Protein: GTP cyclohydrolase 1 type 2 homolog
Organism: Kroppenstedtia pulmonis
Amino acid sequence: MVIQGDRLIQAMEKWAPAYLAVEKDRIGLQVGSPREEVQGVLVALDVTEEVVDEAIRIGANWIVAHHAIIFHPLKELRTDQAAGRLYGKLLKHGIQVYVAHTNLDTAVGGVNDVLSEGLGLDETQVMIPTYHQALKKIAVMVPTDYHELLLQAMCRAGAGWIGNYSHCTFNLTGTGTFRPEAGTQPFIGREGELERVEEVRLETVVPAEIQQAVIQAMIQAHPYEEPAFDIYPLEVPGEVQGMGRVGKLPQKMMLKDLAQKIKSAYGIPCLRMVGEETRYVSTVAVLGGSGGRYYPKAIEMGADVYITGDVDHHTALDALRDGLTLLDPGHHVEHLVLDRIVARLKETFGEKACPIQKTTVDTNPFQFV
């Protein structure tokens, strides 16, 4: 099975759409061409020269990374300097670099869900909403005999989801009338004659961002030349997505015991703790990466403890003053999402499509001594 680059990008953006990224984040294809056939994929947190060397060694011509390789505008591209040498090596060996950053943090099943699942958090909810899904209602009239076919086609395209329930529709039988005029090729009836057909009015909800895809699936499955359908905007809010998660531990535990649980779950040798180690905690806020500035939101959400990386001295003092305990496992724990990326791509394209693997390079710049 040949995988074109644009199909790899589509697979990632179906999971972590670009519209979920925060403003000005650097995501998407940063190096190379979407038309390059995928010979192998290396999944990494960061794109370093060691990661690129590994891609070359294993024959991977695509790197899917979490952190951008180009974040600030380039002023020059000098291959006698470290940054330029990295870009030069990518171009010389025909390696494409695709980045999913805050959109993957936010996505269902992405970074923050992986970190929450590692601690067994229950009743999780979004900590910082950044995207409120707009919903539409589509109503389409279809002959009774084609009702089930159309319903299934629209739901396969993404319509009909309410929470964890799929294929949510309302169906009402009635009589449709039409008269085919000159030049038409009617599926039912004859030119110039008024027809009456028993039809079903099928109504369902659809997220605004996939509206066109659902309409296209509807048109392809519908037997009529000119299907009759209506689209209505809905005031009912759709799914909320955003940064971080807040959830409940299976049972209360001391802060020091939660710290040990994090070390085991995240595979880290140590972490920083702010607060009394014997304090009991039960409601946990988690935000992968650098989230110290969001600690007031963790308090607002009722968290006893906030887990995030790169907490600075003054933020730690402020959080402690405001009654919040902190656990800082570092920025690099985001690497836990890499296995999830590999699994999803293999599920999409199959085990035999092309080699898809996680990097063996540890890009964490910190050592503990």
